[in-house]
Amino acid sequence: xxxxxxxxxxxxxxxxxxxxxxxxxxxxxxxxxxxxxxxxxxxxxxxxxxxxxxxxxxxxxxxxxxxxxxxxxxxxxxxxxxxxxxxxxxxxxxxxxxxxxxxxxxxxxxxxxxxxxxxxxxxxxxxxxxxxxxxxxxxxxxxxxxxxxxxxxxxxxxxxxxxxxxxxxxxxxxxxxxxxxxxxxxxxxxxxxxxxxxxxxxxxxxxxxxxxxxxxxxxxxxxxxxxxxxxxxxxxxxxxxxxxxxxxxxxxxxxxxxxxxxxxxxxxxxxxxxxxxxxxxxxxxxxxxxxxxxxxxxxxxxxxxxxxxxxxxxxxxxxxxxxxxxxxxxxxxxxxxxxxxxxxxxxxxxxxxxxxxxxxxxxxxxxxxxxxxxxxxxxxxxxxxxxxxxxxxxxxxxxxxxxxxxxxxxxxxxxxxxxxxxxxxxxxxxxxxxxxxxxxxxxxxxxxxxxxxxxxxxxxxxxxxxxxxxxxxxxxxxxxxxxxxxxxxxxxxxxxxxxxxxxxxxxxxxxxxxxxxxxxxxxxxxxxxxxxxxxxxxxxxxxxxxxxxxxxxxxxxxxxxxxxxxxxxxxxxxxxxxxxxxxxxxxxxxxxxxxxxxxxxxxxxxxxxxxxxxxxxxxxxxxxxxxxxxxxxxxxxxxxxxxxxxxxxxxxxxxxxxxxxxxxxxxxxxxxxxxxxxxxxxxxxxxxxxxxxxxxxxxxxxxxxxxxx
Length: 709
Ligand SMILES: [Zn+2]
Ligand SMILES: [Zn+2]
Description:
This is DYW domain-containing protein. It holds the Pfam family PPR. GO terms for molecular function: RNA binding; zinc ion binding. The chain has 709 residues and is mostly helical. Among the domains are: 117 residues; 112 residues; 123 residues, no CATH class. Strands 2-1-3-4-5 form a five-stranded mixed sheet, sandwiched between helices. Helix 31 packs parallel to helix 33. It starts with a helix and ends in a 12-residue tail after the last strand. The structure holds zinc ion (2 copies).
């Protein structure tokens, strides 16, 4: 027990007449010091028959190791077990536990039936065996037959079974058990940890089961707040994960407090640090997460994956590549998860050259995994390389729902509606889900395929809110406002109004320069959704665009500034980025932080005068704020981040023939027109991905979106 095996062994060997009692003591000591093989060695020399205590210990030793030798010994001991032990509960329980560990469920069940004096330990052992063999339904079946008082072990095992099963039944049983749990178990760390773990697992399944809100995670935090014991590392990990999952005000408060007060010794525990880092990333606290990352002296692959995943979550994907460099410096080899995260980073950034650079590093056997292939389709689609997305799609034999959906979406994003429909029709019916319908309708909508969209929409049996919204968007883009409104009216007969439906209508009305519809829709939006300020600001901008397009600039300006003043909100900051040589360069509007800022501005001036010679006029209706002193319409519009990013490309030598830009918001109409013309004048291919879609600007002066943006 003190870990001094040598002295114990000496004492043991010097004992002449070894009794079962002495053997049992020695075996117990060896097992608790993880020296099970030694138990078997001693057993080979044992000259007396094991009694019931020794036998139970030996079964446990076999269960512990569960290798070939252990299985052989265990079965032999069981076969040779004297008849009278078949009434001994402790022996039977450990025999059953052993068989379950061997995966021999039938024999374990036979012993269970044989046992005439089943106690709670018997039930615990067999249920635990089922859970260990991932037979969660059976575990719960048996649990429901128990008519004995439950002990703390039962709670732990059944919570684990519910966590493993994570379906409707598991939620019902797990929650009931938790509600009825006696007070005294609420101070048992192991019970609470497994309860919290279960709640988190059930919460992950919540979406599939149609549960709303984060009730399970909230409940996990409720439980946590009842703990009055010393926290252990498992508790820290679980609570950090629960807080990360919730990421609401309460979770942020609890998570931060727990982290601040965490004792020094946990700061060397990798698993604890990794989950703390993940939590801070979910809170959007990148700096805090980076601090923990630096603090961690024993970074493992999970650490690296967690921080990169966090960067993706917080739209700072370009930092992932620096982390990758750091990993190779430390000699840590990326695993499948790492590559998946990096592919995700590439999709977010959407620069073809960067993607190619990363893909070249992925080992071939990893590249051939379906999940990776699916991510690759998404990545190529999002950086505008449909051909490569198609190659990845065709290389997959066992396509799943995600494979098809991603390919449909890739076609849709790139304005290839007919191709998207083709893949949708090719997709087996039982694989189609809500996302498939939405992606194909979106693709139709972006390519103006009305007839096909109507047919597909009519054939969908279960039309969800999002599917209906996509159809409304499609109709609005084609200026079929009455038909779109009818869908809204029909929807609202049984549902609460849904803001995005109105936004679709409004942006269609703007493209149609339909003053009447747009005013009507905007007023209705203000009435129905007074608190959705960000959307209302976008709405006000759209309406004011229409006024400007009728030459009523004064009305446009007054309307816009009045509305924005009333709503008292700041618009989201626009960001654009591009890849220059090996670096991702990012701009905000009127950004002068780049070392070549003045050259960029002169290039914008040069481009502008070339454009004006070709008949371009600045479109002031896209200005979303008051023009300050010293500013002009031109200076405000020329400050837009995508124009800066384009200019930076043009001052490179040699001048590129292909430019790629990505941005976090929708591209404005002025920048769209600007880019169309400059692609023609400079005879250059420009791809711009905005929040909504991908624009391919061709040297012939056209855009793949056909101005439906
Ligand atoms: Zn712009
Ligand atoms: Zn376009």
